[in-house]
Design a protein that fits this description.
Length: 179
């Protein structure tokens, strides 16, 4: 069932001592409305883990569908990856966090807690600065990134995806029509 779930593609960035770091994340979700909070899972094996463990803040970016290349840039294995910040447009944002210019929306959050969960560290963050435009672009979803592993080895697939012509690594997108 987990392979059937689909979420927007998030890129998390942070920095310490002027050295930015970032990665595509497979695990992210809103955890509370009031007070607002959000959880992201950063892979233990990715360089962002070391940088984020020394930073008090994270920037979480959601990508538009047109930014498949940006997701691939931040979704490469750490040992294959040259500095992604040298290959994309970004700027220093609130609290000194690296902000990706081509994101559909972003927020900077203060880290409230860190908890090791299997091969990831779950960061609970409280948004303190947000940018989201009035018009919404269609977002990039993990299912759109079949060739990209967000910082970890993919688990064995339990669902064959036989209901569609192309098997998608991250499952299918579900939408609910609310009257």
């Amino acid at each position: 069932m987990m392979a059937m779930l689909d979420t927007p593609a998030f890129v998390v960035t942070t920095q310490v001592d002027g050295h930015p770091s970032g990665c595509l994340v497979a695990f992210a979700t809103q955890t509370s409305v009031q007070p607002p909070s959000f959880m992201v899972g950063l892979p233990l094996g990715d360089p962002i883990h070391e940088v984020a463990s020394k930073s008090d803040n994270l920037a979480v970016h959601v990508l538009p569908r047109s930014q498949h290349a940006l997701a691939e840039l931040f979704g490469r294995e750490p040992d294959e990856q040259a500095d992604p910040f040298a290959r994309c447009a970004w700027r220093g944002g609130p609290l000194g966090m690296p902000i990706l210019d081509d994101a559909a929306a972003w927020f900077v959050g203060r880290t409230l807690s860190r908890s090791e969960v299997a091969d990831h560290v779950a960061y609970l963050v409280e948004p303190v600065a947000v940018w989201a435009p009035q018009s919404s672009e269609e977002l990039l979803y993990l299912s759109d990134l079949d060739g990209v592993d967000p910082g970890q080895e993919a688990p064995p697939r339990l669902y064959s995806g036989d209901r569609s012509e192309a098997t998608r690594k991250y499952g299918m997108r579900f939408t609910l029509d609310v009257p």
